[in-house]
Amino acid sequence: MLAIRIPERRRRAVALATAAVLTALAAPSLTATGATAATADYDTTYYKNAIGKTGTSLKSSLHTIISSQTKISYSAVWNALKETDEDPADSGKVILLYSGVSRSKSLNGGDAGDWNREHTWAKSHGGFGEATGPGTDLHHLRPADVQVNSIRGNLDFDNGGSAVANGGGSLVDADSFEPRDADKGDVARMILYMAVRYEGDDGWADLEPNEKVGNGSNPYIGKLAVLKAWNDEDPPSAFEENRNQVIYDSYQHNRNPFIDHPEWVEAIW
């Protein structure tokens, strides 16, 4: 039987064509998936009146958008947090803010070793307490270790201090609290959500960030420059994005825009 000799040029062409086909079959799709695709969808629906704006115009548009929400009671927050902050590695536990500890969902309460409801925007900064509205807004409420939560108290946020016992790397001094690195962006985006959501037009104080610490009972929390830096240093995680989605889908039906668009922090402030 005669062997058919294929010219070298022809063999190279066939090999290249075959490789191209195999590459096309194996290559992942470049279509946006996950949070990227979801954000793009919300840009044409939920955020459509905010796209392209900056400064006070953007802040005003976002305020109108996110003020449409379903409010829940303070007692209902317990069960909500068990879903929003569920440990992705163990459905029987929640991940605690500041410490990063995974703790049983059943250990919610007020004793040492329990977790309770941390108001990231301290409730005394604006006088809303635990009232339905800012006092129960899941976008700034997180599970936290009882003792770590007590150490944070109503302190403003800033860099520096001494290590917080069992705080996962968080620091504290006389007038400020610094969360562990993995939570810094989360804290910044929760604080800035509150500043956009609560503008003094619904019976509650106009909440605003400023460049001070020691704000006490004033409706302010600092420091804005530090919060902006934290937003840049610690971008939204999959955990944070999932939390935003659960709140939107199952509870309040509004979103934290700075999780979807962290660049809007700089666009406003």
From TrEMBL:
It holds the Pfam family Endonuclease_1. Residues 1-26 form the signal peptide. Keywords: Hydrolase, Nuclease, Signal. The keyword S-adenosyl-L-methionine does not apply. GO terms for molecular function: hydrolase activity; nuclease activity. InterPro entries: Endonuclease-I, His-Me_finger_sf, TAT_signal. This is Ribonuclease. The lineage of its organism: Bacteria, Bacillati, Actinomycetota, Actinomycetes, Kitasatosporales.
